[in-house]
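User: My advisor, Dr. K., asked me to get a structural model of this assembly before our group meeting. I'm new to this, so sorry if the format is off. These are the inputs:
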Amino acid sequence: MNSEYLIIFFILGLALVGGAIIFSSLVSPRSYNSEKFEPYECGIPTEGPAWIQFRVGYYLFAIIYLVFDVETVFLFPFGVVMKSIGLRAFIEIVIFVFILGLGLLYAWKKGALKWI
Amino acid sequence: MILDIYSFSTLTSSIDNSLHNMMSPWMATLTEFVLVGIVFLLFYALLGLFLVYLERKVCAVIQNRIGPNRVGRWGIFQTFADFIKLLMKELITIKHADKFLFNLAPFIVIIASFMAMAALPFAKGLQAIDFNIGIFYVIAVSSLGVVGILIAGWSSNSKYSLIGAMRSGAQIISYELSVGLSLLAIVIFSGSMQLSTIVESQADGWWIFKGHIPAFIAFVLYLITATAEINRGPFDLAEAESELTAGFHTEYSGIKFAFFFLAEYMNMFIVSAIAATLFLGGWMPFHIGGWEGFNQIMDYIPSILWFFGKTFVVIYIIMWFKWTFPRLRIDQMLNLEWKYLLPLNLMNTVIISFVVLMGLYFK
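Assistant: The format is fine. Below is the predicted structure of the whole assembly, which you can bring to the meeting.
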């Protein structure tokens, strides 16, 4: 099959979720109680919104991830041609991974991987 | 060789031919669309229900209980009953939520897992779309699910959801790297990203055996990181129920909650299927070089049984993890990835390139 068929899978996901939600909203009972629509917070009244500034630790990991993920993408074409190119590809990949490792070591020493 | 009677390509091509004989090409294509759609929808729904049942039974066996046993024989219809119950529940959208994003999140999560399934080779000649960058496509599409999780957590405007979503985001993107690198091992060995070619390359032995120790290390690393990638215990920090209620889907109810649940199980199936395809030979039977009689007996088992057998073995191992190990802390988990698994994976990549360069693996 051709890759245009991918659209079926998109439509399937859409139809499954959409259909079930529409069906469910038709058959499910409804009752109103103002307390019911509050965000859950261990039983006591909710204190303030949750759209707040959040800890920076997560974002640091996200930034390092971004760098490394792009590098991983570069490694895949190398994997495909490794067998046919041979020694030259191997030397290049050693240099590539070495530089990548230095980058990881740098982030590590700078304390980006430390959870405060 | 694989017996031709078990090949699905004869079946699919005969359906294709008869449809084209009966009606105009345009109508035939449309009918095929609908047929494939119905088959995959049924497969997806039934597999999801079965996996939930399996999980409960496996958990019960490990904890020395019986598990679900009231609805139907051996409780087989328990998940059907649960599904109907969830369908009848009221859908609550909480007051201060971002309504559009709140409703969008289940769509993204389910569509991501549906599209990943398009590339899986289920049996000989039974693969919806055979991309030439197959494995790359699966990694790319299945990691879209994290967007849905982040949106779900953020739009709920609840603190538990936000913490759960942030944890999940950090966890999934971190482990994404190691998943990619451990799958790269097999791409180097087989020299292709196309899933059907990778399966064909394992006709005389699976990569986990042919690739010596480096391939085995890659398999173990893949199992660990894939477990983390799909948010399952011991890495289920995103929904750590003892501290975060239910994590990113705390505020979801009824069928919307069910979709997050379903997507988690389908992702488990997808990562297990990828493990089976790349490391354990996909639908290829178990062959030992030189043992002709043995190999011929193995050929009599249909390829679809081989695929699902291997997949369910991997699924069982992942479930076993969940019910055996205690949950990690978020800092321990990120340490494990960045300070141990990632350097190990990078080193393994170099070692595998060396092995392939010197031809030290079984060809």
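One thing worth pointing out at the meeting: The two ends of chain A are 51 Å apart (CA to CA).

User: Perfect, thanks a lot.
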